[in-house]
Amino acid sequence: MADPQSTPAPAHPPTPTPTVVVDEVHVTYTVGGGSAGGRGAATAALSRMLRRGEKRPTGRRVHAVKGVSFVAYRGEAIGLIGSNGSGKSTLLKAIAGLQPVERGQVYTDGQPSLLGVNAALMNDLTGERNVILGGLAMGMSRTEVRERYDEIVDFSGINEKDDAISRPMGTYSSGMGARLRFSIAAAKSHDVLLIDEALSTGDARFRRRSQQRIDELRAAAGTVFLVSHSNSTITETCERALWLEAGTLRRDGPAKEVVAAYEEFTATGATTGAK
Fold first, then answer.
1. What CATH class does 17-30+58-111+190-205+221-270 carry?
2. Residues 6 or more apart from 44 whose CB is under 8 A from it?
3. CA 234 vs CA 77, 107, 155, 159: distances in Å
4. What is stated as this protein's family in its record (predicted)?
């Protein structure tokens, strides 16, 4: 008879590690009313100076995210779906710390990175210079950027037909720019990577490479959030999905189940008013 004391205890799965906690978050912002439109930052600043002391229109208040709560765990890839204007991109910005939260709290373990390094990329500079600037903005050293430069350019695929990397980024199509931004951001591992629509650009080969890279980032103990209007991209890339509609979280669960519910919802024409 075996000694009961020598019987090993059953193995328990490791406790998942939370990386993002969103607790009853509300996000509001104001549109219109005193905005400078497309006149540029300098003109807008001058207009504000000239209008000091004047009573300005208050604009329209938008309640973009309404009491959203969820917990994301290390190693997850989570898709965000919903109609246009449902609050998906606003929620990503709030998680990244780029959009103030009116009520509720966002807790993150590590530094979230919103895909795009948009603020660092400059249209009048070449793609080559933007790879360097973008890499530095993502926290890489100059040595790391040099070591990964060819990999970044090759991954983006923008140089396959001509020497696009040596041209100003302002000459790129929106798809080329999005692919280069994804390639820069994906060259570095992230605690939390937030991707907004980048995988909807490019051909099937680029999407496959992108999905493979997301899997690698998750395997490196990261968490990935993906916003996309392509339901197939969500189900192929993510095992979990959050469905936002009119700023509220309607469903949180396995990606295929949530996408199926959303597709049934849209098929009924229930998304009236979505833009």
1. alpha beta
2. 35, 36
3. 9, 24, 21, 28
4. Belongs to the ABC transporter superfamily.
Q: How far is 177 from 179, CA to CA, in rounded Å?
A: 5
Length of the chain: 275
Using alpha carbons only, what angle is made at residue 267 by residues 210 and 90, rounded to the nearest 5 degrees? 50
Helical H segments across the chain, by residue range = 41-50, 88-96, 127-137, 142-156, 174-186, 204-219, 231-237, 255-267
Instruction: Report the largest interatomic distance among the alpha carbons of the chain, rounded to a whole angstrom.
Output: 92
Tokens of 224: 């990935």
Query: Does pTM top 0.85 for this prediction?
Result: no
* E strands in the chain: 18-31, 60-73, 77-81, 103-108, 112-114, 192-196, 223-227, 240-245, 248-254
Residue 14 backbone dihedrals phi, psi, to 5 degrees = -60, 145
Q: Which residues contact 30 (CB under 8 A, 6 or more apart)?
A: 58, 59, 60, 61, 62
Distance from C-alpha of 86 to C-alpha of 64, rounded to nearest angstrom: 7
What is the spatial distance between Cα 19 and Cα 108, in angstroms, rounded to a whole number? Answer: 5
Picking from 44, 87, 22, the residue whose alpha carbon sits closest to that of residue 223 is 22
Is residue 225 a contact partner of residue 95, using CB atoms and an 8 Å limit? yes
Token pair belonging to 204: 């099937």
SS3 50: helix
Q: What share of the chain is helix, strand, coil (3-state, %, to 5)?
A: 40, 25, 35
Tell me the chain's radius of gyration from C-alpha atoms: 22
Q: What would the pLDDT profile of 102-154 be if each residue is shown by its tens digit?
A: 999 999 987 888 764 454 678 899 999 999 988 888 788 999 999 999 999 99
- Angle, vertex CA 144, rays to CA 140 and CA 146, nearest 5: 120
